[in-house]
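Dear V.,

Thank you for sending over the compound details. I've combined the ligand you provided, N-(iminomethyl)-L-glutamic acid, with the protein sequence from our construct and run the structure prediction for the complex. I'm sharing the raw inputs here so there's no ambiguity about protonation or stereochemistry in the SMILES, which I know was a concern on your side last time.
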Amino acid sequence: MSALLITDIGSLVGTHPKNISVLKGSSMNTLPAINNAWILCEDGLIADFGSMDNLPTNLPTSLTSISAKGGYVFPSWCDSHTHIVFAASREEEFVMKIQGKSYEEIAAAGGGILNSARKLQNETEDHLFESASMRLKDMIKQGTGAVEIKSGYGLTLDSELKMLRVIRRLKEAFKIPIKASFLAAHTYPEDYKNDHNSYIKLIIDKMLPKIADEGLADYIDVFCEKGFFSVDETEKLLEVGAKYGLPPKIHANQLSISGAVQVGVKHHAISVDHLEVTDEDVVRSISSSNTIATLLPSCSLYLGIPFANARGLINADIPVALASDFNPGSTPSGNMNFVVSLGCIKLKMLPEEAINAATLNGAAAMQLSETVGSIAVGKRANLFITRPMSSLAYLPYSFGQSQIEKVVLNGEIC
Ligand SMILES: N=CN[C@@H](CCC(=O)O)C(=O)O
Ligand SMILES: [Zn+2]
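Below is the predicted structure of the protein with N-(iminomethyl)-L-glutamic acid bound, written out as structure tokens.
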């Protein structure tokens, strides 16, 4: 039996009762913590925790004991929206953006998702696995302890399978929970630009059966947006996805009010993600459901598009999650510490709200809140220890600087 004891914790953050699996609206401002605390991890799980005033004496015999020296302990970030399997960076588009081109203009000029798809076609599964592993290792060092990864740069049967098999290998190779989303409906490949029906048919008749057969995906995703997939096309795909047991997590309202949110909610989406553009109908639709609103502020920052209306969503009693959206086109960063800072600075979320959004609600957006996302007995011991901090708010306040001293995964120091 392996055991790890962390003592002298300045504040043990996120000690929510275990039965709380998601935080909605005003409850997002509640972030329970124990000051001057200890935590015991056994066999990869959180075994117990409490105040240093009550440090237990009957500890396991083979115990690694470390002092947090006044640093804070947080549950690992749960990053519920990423695209970290890709063949190459796209900094040439970065330069086009600096010169004033919009996301749509860059896509129309042969950049965008099709650019990544072209590059991925020629890349081997091994290389994709190696480069995605490097990204994931960096994310783990930055405190991420659970992640969702999408396909969607394949856009052919073989390449979508290649991406999903890479994600399966990542699931096997890494110690953190990983969920896979099938996103062949990311954009129309060149050959199907004027024949949407045939591409939808390819997804439905060829890709989905094979993916379901090999158990390669946990969710179905669609980029429902003007110039990408229409509401009707999205609906058709979500219906068939449901037949294969794949609940939706969809790209919704990134560039326009498209009806994406409503179609996602209608099909019981686990989350509707992006939401840079919303109106009252959108907010009403989400608030009438169990769907989580996942916001991606690094994407807004990088693309120079509006920031989501987090306050409006929270005021409407909606559960809000924060995720990185790490991808080569719209968000070349998987740093969740920065996402949490942006949640505060640009989305006007309070530190408690932003941290809950990036931990417990992120876990819920991957249906993982029974195992990660908070400090509770029996959950996986995926944590990070910070430097000593003057207060909780110091973490998002000190944006761009890492406060993380040590990462613990499954009760082991990495
Ligand atoms: N919007 C769609 N998908 C990605 C961007 C993909 C890309 O540009 O390569 C996103 O979530 O931002
Ligand atoms: Zn995305």
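A first observation: The first strand starts at residue 3 and ends at 13.

Warm regards,
I. M.
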